[in-house]
Amino acid sequence: MKKHIPFGLRLIVAIILLQTLRFKFTAHPDSVYIFSKVGLEPLGRIIIGILELIAGVLLLIPKTVWVGATLSLVIIGGAIIIHFTKLGIEINNDGGTLFATAIITFLLSAMILFIHKKDISFLCLS
User: Fold this and answer.
1) pTM for this structure?
2) Largest CB tally within 10 Å, which of 35, 39, 68, 72?
3) 29 preceded by a cis bond (ω within 30 of 0)
């Protein structure tokens, strides 16, 4: 059971990251609106999408979980900061769903990184 929970957390974060790609890569109007509002349309939308794809895949590979979790924390941390500074909590009458998803993804990524901290070789945490 203990092995299944960390994998479940990884899977949830990977699914969240990967399912948003269709919005970014197809230039969905909501995605275009968000990235336009922060001055990153279209290049920022594509780059963030690629980074989210990489993070999602890395989370699913046992040896690279900590890298995926770290990348996810950086990306989603940036998204949370952008929500607070430029976008607001609610976007296009979504009731704050996008913001709540970012918070959940950030917290789960932090949990994953904590669980896998022993895998970060350069920290030498024995």
Assistant:
1) 0.92
2) 72
3) no
